[in-house]
Amino acid sequence: MGLLDVFNSIKVKAENFLNEKNVVTDFLAKLEEKTGIKKKIIAAGAVSLTGLYLVYGYGASLVCNLIGFVYPAYYSIKAIESLNKEDDTKWLTYWVVYGVFSLGEFFSDIFLYWFPFYYAFKCLFLLWCMAPMSWNGSQIIYNKVVRPIFLRHEATVDNMVSDISGKAMSAAENLTREVLSTLVKNKSLVTPAPPETKSLPSSSGETSSAKVAPSLPSEEQRPFLG
């Protein structure tokens, strides 16, 4: 496939996108009604202004990340909802490459930030990765770089993940057991002891203790009877 075929394929995809019913095309249609300018020209002008903004504008990082995320996310959702699974594989490949690129960019951004026109080249790279052709950037990088490394270290990574997950489950079980035992101990310490019940004296006991038998008079106290 030559360079001309690539441009023709991109042109066809862009025309199909502009003819679809979505938020972007509805907005372009309203602009076409108000200005009288065809939405193809408006879209081309917007792309040109975006390119200039990526070179000279402020906040180019945000614009570049939106370009690399919004369009693929939209078509990824469409791929999930469709019955065809080929487009699922295509966009899964893109997201794997996008994740690897973002991880590498995180550690090298402090150096790449000072590179002239960095965000313009980054945007071109992401557009190449999502380009509507069989040999786009995501396919090439995945087949030439990501896939060989993954197949070479797949068993090691699986064992590592299994070991880590087992240790995590064991740690979670031990932590849960300790928390439950601590709660049970605290509950036993806080719970007050039941009050002692005092038995009431019986009525027969009260009567016998209250009534004291009268003492008999002594011989000296007795009256003398002559």
| Ends distance | 161 Å
Low-confidence stretches: 205-213
Q: Got a strand count?
A: 0
The amount of helix comes to: over 70%
Largest sheet: none
User: What's the overall geometry?
Assistant: elongated
Mean pLDDT equals 77
Structural class by helix and strand composition: mainly alpha
Strand content: under 5%
Oligomer: single chain
By DSSP (H or I, 4+ residues per run), the number of helices equals 8
Cα radius of gyration in angstroms: 43 Å
SSE order in H/E notation? Answer: HHHHHHHH
Subcellular location: Cytoplasmic vesicle, Clathrin-coated vesicle membrane; Endoplasmic reticulum membrane; Membrane
Keywords: Cytoplasmic vesicle, Endoplasmic reticulum, Membrane, Transmembrane, Transmembrane helix
Membrane topology: Multi-pass membrane protein
Pfam families: TB2_DP1_HVA22
Describe this entry's structure for a reader.
With 226 residues, the protein is mostly helical. The chain has a domain at 134-186. The protein is 76% helix and 0% strand. Helix 3 packs across helix 4 (60-81), helix 4 runs antiparallel to helix 5 (86-112) and helix 5 (86-112) crosses helix 7 (137-190). Residues 205-213 have low confidence and may be disordered.
